[in-house]
Design a protein that fits this description.
The complex is a heterodimer of chains A (620) and B (82). Helix content of chain A is 39%, strand content 14%. Chain A has 25 helices and 18 strands. In chain B, strand 2 and strand 3 form a beta hairpin. Chain B has a single domain, classed as 2-Layer Sandwich (Alpha-Beta Plaits), CATH 3.30.70.260. Chain B has 82 residues and is α+β, with helices and mostly antiparallel strands. The radius of gyration of chain B is 12 Å and the shape is globular. Chain B starts with a strand and ends with a helix. A four-stranded antiparallel β-sheet of chain B has the order 2-3-1-4. Classes of the chains: A alpha/beta (620), B alpha+beta (82). Chains A and B meet through helix 7, strand 5 and helix 10 of A and strand 1, helix 1, helix 2 and strand 4 of B. Chain B: Its EC number is 2.2.1.6. Chain B: Dimer of large and small chains. Chain B: It is an enzyme of class 2 (transferase).
Chain lengths: 620, 82
């Protein structure tokens, strides 16, 4: 759109291009703050109300080339602003840095709502700059106007509407501080076009006061465990015979996985992680129980049933883990919780001991205290029990089927990647299969929309991750329905020459929805069957420039195809036609306890084991 | 039961909406609401009454404290009783 811009400031910006090192307009101030914050890549889609900022990015890149001649802050343009948001989120999840997206007003900003809410729900740091119509036009239903501060205010960590250009520099800088501090989250800065064009005095430093937030943040960041706190924790642990760590995404956000490993090395507690916590603790470790919850491993869920002590780390007892809070970990006599967010303590489940503070420091303190007091829990019986659970209730599936089993596809990929590839997913069955059957040896290798469950997340998130790690293998495990949501981003992959690998597990529809309809709606597949849909995914990928694009429908060709697919140097697309009736097991149904978990036909259930105790492992 | 909360927040456009929106999004109806200045012109005091149980009250107070614009959340009756 076109808004009337103050000619004076526009003249300033154009008349002294060589002085761009000292920003003179609002738009230049935004770009300079991004550069000062170390932003390496911007994801975004342009439009009328954000043009001054886009122009300032262009001029910044022209004046500040990287040593290799590349742009210092390249703009990556998606097919849709939602794609830009998830690229920024994928970048942030894979790198631990703040992801940055810049979009225009109105539809640009509203298309960004889903990634912003998604990032809020998964505590991912983003800074989103939105263009807005000129201050004089706000509220007039101007072209491409939307009430962004109202809309985003309900789903972001914070939103700023900057109406005074003198505040813009400090506001953008503050947005980065807010996004990455405390419990991370997305921060939106809504900038009217006249504020972008306005002449400003550059200060080069300074942030907004935000007294309330900063004082709470200081309290949390300075919090430390006293000797009394540590003594109480270890006194309770000493009473426990079957203690368990329940680790969530907070361990990854806090970069606390080394501290967690040291703690486990010192005291021997087995670890189960949430979906968001995958990679926080090496899943190949004998003390790892992989994922717990609705689709967690049977052995993790049984360990939760059997444990008598829970240490929750950066985890929030959400409904996919503690569907029935009263019956979660029913044998736990003591629950301890450490989190950076005071609002999470006891929110769902009453806890006996808690600490609000930085996780790494808290774990290091506990480890040091425990070592100094020679605390060494005797857990060999519990370790043997956990090992037995892992053996007896191992993940398994129909290995004799004539149809390609999705689990076999993930296992084949995992044999090549060995838990070292960055995996992103859409949402649904394929997401759960990937979570269950991949190994995760380190944090920030697992990118998934955990809380919001946004279909269409996988492809753009993988693109963002590939920008964060250009040399790493990045694989998007997607579903035929999820990838349709943002399929326009296939072209973004080839436009930027990204070597990422896209796998579509095609079961002709919304598999997870069908699974629920089969279980709870007598098999009436309302709106979830796509078997008559016409899309040829391989042709679609080829049309978007994928030189390697194949369909796999013969089980015998699985190993060779996967090897060829991963060995291809450039972008590659693999559609796998899988058993449409393959289900996600185990499953703890909504409203059910872990004891009522369904394990399917191929994973041993404890109920079955209990009726026939003398049976061998071949009974299934 | 009926609870009165006293909230200090930054005197900025949008701050009141965020507090009111937080209550609304969690299904709480604000029965009364008063906003006024304090001795510090950059800070407003918001006094509201809301019907909710003790557990819900604790949660919403914690959630309100997460709002960036909010300086302080108090439940004067509970403070007096304590």
């Amino acid at each position: 759109m076109t808004t009337s811009s103050p000619p004076a400031s526009a003249a300033v910006a154009v008349a002294h291009p060589s002085h761009i090192a000292v920003p003179a307009s609002g738009a230049e101030a935004i770009v300079q703050v991004l550069a000062d914050e170390g932003v390496e890549v911007i994801f975004g889609y342009s439009g009328g109300a954000i043009l001054p900022v886009y122009d300032a990015v262009f001029r910044h890149n022209a004046l500040h080339p990287r040593e290799d001649g590349g742009e210092s802050m390249p703009l990556v343009v998606p097919a849709n602003e939602q794609g830009a948001g998830f690229m920024a989120a994928g970048y942030a999840r894979a790198s631990g840095k703040v992801g940055v997206a810049i979009v225009t007003s109105g539809p640009g900003a509203t298309n960004m709502v889903t990634p912003v809410r998604d990032s809020m729900a998964d505590s991912i740091p983003l800074v989103v700059i939105c263009g807005q119509v000129g201050t004089a036009s706000i509220g007039s239903d101007a072209f491409q106007e939307a009430p962004v501060s109202n809309i985003m205010g309900a789903c972001a960590k914070h939103v700023f509407l900057v109406t005074d250009a003198a505040q813009l520099e400090a506001t953008v800088r503050t947005a980065f501080t807010l996004a990455r501090s405390g419990r991370p989250g997305p921060v939106v800065v809504d900038v009217p076009k006249d504020v972008q064009n306005a002449a400003i005095d550059w200060h080069g430093s300074g942030e907004l006061l935000l007294g309330g937030y900063r004082s709470r943040l200081r309290t949390v960041e300075q919090a430390s465990l006293s000797d009394t706190d540590c003594a109480a924790f270890f006194a309770a642990l000493a009473q426990a015979r079957r203690p368990l760590i329940y680790a969530g995404g907070g361990v990854i956000a806090a970069e606390a996985s080394t501290a967690l490993r040291d703690f486990v090395d010192a005291f021997g507690l087995p670890v189960t992680t949430t979906l968001m916590g995958l990679g926080a603790f090496d899943t190949a470790d004998p003390r790892a129980l992989h994922m717990l919850g609705m689709h967690g491993t049977a052995y993790a869920n049984y360990a939760v049933e059997d444990c008598d002590f829970v240490l929750a780390l950066g985890a929030r007892f959400d409904d996919r883990v503690a569907g029935v809070p009263d019956r979660f970990a029913p044998g736990a006599k003591f629950i301890a919780q450490i989190d950076i967010d005071p609002a999470e303590i006891g929110k769902v489940k009453r806890v006996d001991w808690h600490h609000v503070g930085p996780l790494t420091r808290a774990l290091e303190r506990l480890t040091a205290y425990g070592r100094a007091h020679a605390i060494a829990p005797q857990l060999s019986a519990w370790h043997a029990h956990v090992a037995g659970l892992k053996r007896t209730h191992a993940m398994d599936y129909d290995r004799a089927s004539a149809l390609i089993q999705p689990y076999a596809v993930i296992e084949a990929l995992n044999r090549h990647t060995q838990g070292r590839a960055i995996i992103s997913t859409g949402v649904g069955q394929h997401q759960m299969w990937a979570a269950q059957y991949f190994d995760f040896r380190a944090p920030r290798h697992w990118l998934t929309s955990g809380s919001m469950g946004t279909m269409g997340f996988g492809l753009p998130a993988a693109i963002g991750a590939q920008f964060a790690h250009p040399g790493k293998l990045v694989i998007d495990i997607d579903g035929d329905a999820s990838i349709r949501m943002n399929i326009g981003e296939l072209e973004t992959v080839t436009t930027y020459g990204l070597p990422l690998k896209v796998v579509v597990l095609n079961n002709s529809g919304d598999g997870m929805v069908r699974q629920w309809q089969r279980l709870y709606f007598k098999g009436r597949f309302a709106g979830s069957d796509k078997s008559l849909h016409k899309k040829d995914f391989v042709l679609a990928a080829q049309a978007d420039g994928f030189a390697w694009a194949r369909r796999l429908d013969q089980p015998a060709a699985l190993e060779a195809t996967v090897a060829d697919f991963l060995a291809f140097a450039g972008p590659a697309f693999l559609e796998v036609v899988i058993d449409p009736d393959a289900g996600v097991y185990p499953m703890v149904g909504p409203g059910a306890s872990y004891a009522q978990m369904i394990t399917g036909d191929f994973i041993a259930s404890r109920k079955a084991a209990a009726v026939d105790e003398g049976a061998t492992s071949h009974m299934f | 039961m009926n609870h009165t909360l006293s909230i200090l927040l930054q005197n900025e456009a949008g701050a009141l909406v965020r507090v009111a929106g937080l209550f609304a999004a969690r299904g709480y109806n604000i029965d009364t609401l008063t906003v006024g200045p304090t001795h510090d012109p950059s800070v407003s005091r918001l006094v509201l009454t809301v019907q909710c149980d003790e557990a819900g009250l604790g949660r919403i107070m914690q959630q309100t404290r997460k709002l960036v614009d909010v300086l302080q959340v108090a439940h004067p009756a509970a403070a007096l009783a304590a």
